[in-house]
Amino acid sequence: MTTAQASTQPSPIARGVLHELIPASATKPAMLVFALPGSNYQLHLLPAQGTDLASLQPRLNKRLLGTIRCQARRVDECRTGGRFIEPVLGRPRKLQGTVLQHLQNENSLLVDAAGAVAVDGQPLPVIVKLTDNRQSPAQFPLGTMITCDVLEGATFQPA
User: In this structure, is residue 1 part of a structural domain?
Assistant: First the structure.
């Protein structure tokens, strides 16, 4: 008798807390601050297109689930270091993590960038879009540790 194994795809849903809503100013767009419990991480992310920040007001300082997306200047394989996002406070500028899934139709990678700050034992998934035309998701095998500089404009789409 054979038993069919359910194929489980990694989830792109990040878990955290809505720490703050930052209104737009004359020089900067509105942002939300996505915090990771048990750490000092406070990621400043743009709301994804179609997300109304005012609708998130009731969720302030409460659990928030959603998808984090960013664009990589260039992705490189690395063999040392851990999984992290830099800086800990502010907009993401550098990301290092493990490839969880290839998103070929989006020319993107799903990357676990949590390291020791996994929330509820789950990774911190980030969808990293490849912007260097010489690169494709298939170049980075699942489980590979990658590093990249993150272009300005990382977004958060509430689930």
Answer: no
Vertex 36, ends 7 and 157: CA angle to 5°? 65
Low-confidence ranges of the chain (pLDDT < 50): 1-6
Pairing of strands 89-90, 42-47: parallel
Tokens standing for 159? 């689930």
Strand pairing of 145-150 and 94-103? antiparallel
93 in a structural domain: yes
First to last CA, the chain: 39
When divided into structural domains, the chain yields a total of 1
Residue 8 has a pLDDT of 73
Domain that holds residue 40: 13-158
Integer angstrom CA distances of residue 121 from 14, 78, 97, 133, 153: 11, 24, 16, 35, 27
